[in-house]
Design brief:
Elements (H helix, E strand, L loop, with lengths): L8 E6 L5 H13 L3 E6 L9 H8 L10 H7 L1 H7 L2 E7 L1 H8 L6 H8 L4 E5 L3 H5 L1 H12 L3 E2 L3 E4 L5 E5 L3 H11 L10 E6 L4 E4 L2 E3 L6 H12 L3 E6 L10 E5 L3 H12 L4 E4 L6 E3 L18 E3 L3 H6 L7 E8 L3 H11 L4 E6 L10 E8 L2 E9 H22 L1
Parallel strand pairs: 1-2, 1-3, 3-4, 4-5, 8-11, 8-13, 11-12, 13-16, 16-17
Antiparallel strand pairs: 6-7, 9-10, 14-15, 17-18, 18-19
The structure holds ligand PMT.
The site of ligand PMT has 29 residues, from α10, α12 and β16.
Length: 405
């Protein structure tokens, strides 16, 4: 018996493809391991497998249509979307992958996927030429960026006689992947996290700007550490030279005002918000439309205050996430960090000592963490290891926060 699956609610979507017959065995395996299964069939899938078979094997009525009043009365599409701990689409056709990529909601399965916050696992199955097409590969990469998980396809002889990558994974392999995703290592499945990282750039004229030395390494490492544990991560990044961590949705911005707009939009949809960006406190009051010409020995720039993004998140009265800030200080580390914790209404603050320029763009960092009822120190180590330790502490405080609420 696979204990990861006991009591788990798995919604199995079947799209049109000859491999649909293998999904019957997958459902049998899931049920054998005490998972609850509900099946959604696309119209094309009914050409390959019958609702009656799937009802018998899953032990539940099979849903097929978005516009079926009877089915909607029993368990409507939104209820189905909320019911699922995980959505598994096997086989996932090239057409379904493309439609999921662009957010279509014109049939029951695509609508349920769009309406659900459950993790989604796709088991692609298609002709090898269709699989290797640039557009299919681009769609798969786009979905991976949005945290959609994949299993397979396998390489081998196909029903059409071609040989290549495109065969749906075997039921046992899909079952194993489901189990892994539900396992301890993926303990943050369903947790939504928004993170800001990197610097902002505040334009002076079309060719010059004010910024700072943040490289984004710390914020990207935090995004990676959350994503590795299965959280749904959105990373709002200032201009940096770093590749996106796997399974992280990245939004690139330049200025503090752009970061504010994206961060607030993401914060209200997230459980946890981490403000690791080094946001410029001020911006130029009037950005010159043309390059400023050199004239005289001095030049005056008037700066105006930028929005304090994390303070706005901390002070949200509706849909406020658990809010974690950073403080980069050159002196009075503890006092200034605790002051920011209180003033910006944060749940936790991570203080860096940046005197003598260390931390910004460095490979290593240490952090002193403070929250209203305590604190701890994370000693000097590489930023990725530090990020993992920080995520452990954030999750422990986050869980406590909900116990107390
Ligand atoms: O990117 P790296 O090179 O890896 O370096 C990491 C780091 C030093 C940038 C990072 O660890 C860090 O300390 N980030 C916060 C830097 C900072 O701007 O600190 P602050 O004390 O000025 O700001 C306090 C908090 O308010 C931060 O959470 C910051 O994101 C937020 N803030 C600040 C100003 C502003 N206008 N809006 C904000 O949201």
């Amino acid at each position: 018996m696979d204990s990861q699956l006991v009591g788990k609610r798995i919604l199995v979507g079947i799209t049109g493809g000859i491999a649909a017959y293998k999904t019957i065995e997958l459902i049998r395996l899931l049920r054998k391991n005490k998972a609850e299964v509900r099946v959604v069939l696309t119209p094309a899938a009914t050409e390959f497998v019958t609702p009656l078979t799937l009802q018998a094997i899953s032990g539940n009525p099979v849903a097929q249509s978005l516009l079926d009043p009877q089915a909607e009365l029993a368990m409507g599409h939104i209820e189905l979307a909320k019911w699922a701990d995980m959505i598994v689409v096997a086989p996932a056709s090239a057409d379904f992958i493309a439609r999921l990529t662009v957010g279509m909601a014109d049939d029951l399965l695509s609508t349920v996927c769009l309406a659900s916050s459950a993790p989604i696992l796709l088991a692609p199955a298609m002709n090898q030429q269709m699989f290797s097409q640039t557009i299919t590969q681009q769609n798969i990469r786009a979905l991976q960026q949005r945290q959609v998980q994949f299993v397979g396809p396998n390489v081998g002889e196909q029903a059409c006689g071609d040989v290549g990558a495109g065969r749906m994974s075997e039921p046992a392999e899909i079952h194993q992947k489901i189990s892994e995703l539900l396992s301890e290592a993926q303990d943050l499945l369903g947790v939504k996290v928004a993170i800001t990282a990197g610097p902002t750039r505040e334009a002076i004229d079309p060719v010059r700007y004010i910024s700072n030395h943040s490289s984004g390494k710390m914020g990207f490492a935090i995004a990676e550490a959350f994503a590795e544990r299965g959280a749904t991560v959105t990373l709002i990044s200032g201009p940096v030279n770093l590749p996106s961590p796997l399974n992280v949705h990245r939004i690139d911005v330049i200025s503090a005002e752009q970061m504010q707009e994206q961060a607030l939009m993401q914060a209200v949809q997230s459980h946890i918000f981490v403000g690791c960006a080094a946001v410029a406190d001020y911006r130029v009051a009037n950005i010159a439309e043309q390059k400023i010409k050199k004239a005289g020995d001095e030049i005056q720039l008037t700066l105006v205050k930028n929005p304090d993004i994390i303070a706005e998140v901390g002070h949200l009265s509706v849909n406020r996430p658990f809010t974690v800030g950073f403080a980069a200080e050159t002196e009075n580390l503890e006092q200034y960090a605790k002051d920011k914790l209180q003033r910006k209404k944060l749940d936790m603050i991570c203080a860096n000592d940046v005197s003598s320029g260390q931390v910004f763009n460095a490979e290593e960092n240490s952090l002193r963490l403070f929250w209203s009822a305590g604190g701890t120190t994370l000693p000097l180590t590489d930023k990725r290891t530090l990020a993992k330790q920080l995520v452990n502490q954030i999750m422990s405080n986050y869980q406590q926060y909900y116990v107390e609420k």
